[in-house]
Amino acid sequence: MLPCRGNMAESTRRLTHIAKIYNVIHSYDFQTRAMTVTAKKPTPAEPKRALIKDLRRLLADAISDHKSYDVPQVCVRIGLADGTKEEAFSSKYKYAMARIASEPVEKVLEAARTYLLEEESFWLAEAVHKLEEIDVQPITEITRRRLAGVFDNRPLCTEIEELALIRRLWPVDKMPSHDYPSSDRMLERDIW
Hints:
elongated; 2 strands; mainly alpha
């Protein structure tokens, strides 16, 4: 139970916003009810196979964002096999996936890291970090409660608006809404 300071409705609103961001970004079940913060321990990490499949798909997506005539060069630059431009012109995604699918996980992870050194891809970076952190102990429930308590009825930052701070950390304008997942609504709109 967190102590109630000041306006309870305002405290609850702030914790709800923090919980929404936390829930979407970390995929944990983090709920706020009244002034009680309960956080379940995350279930054992998704099977590593699912994370690897996501990494392969996200890397292929990122590569396919390039122009068709650049795709073979991008693949070679990040350490994947070469191919013909005609193959890339028929389907950029299939071209990239054909090279990624046959590689061992370690090589795909290294290719993704190399790609991220040159290009920006939030979702690919998240997949890389999830795989790197699979054996790292998660943040404990008491630590999460203490962090939520620190922000109880206080702004996240005093120099800039909270939403501006959050935008610097996460692409909330590109992240799907947690409240309306089937719509085109973005998380940024849910926060405020």
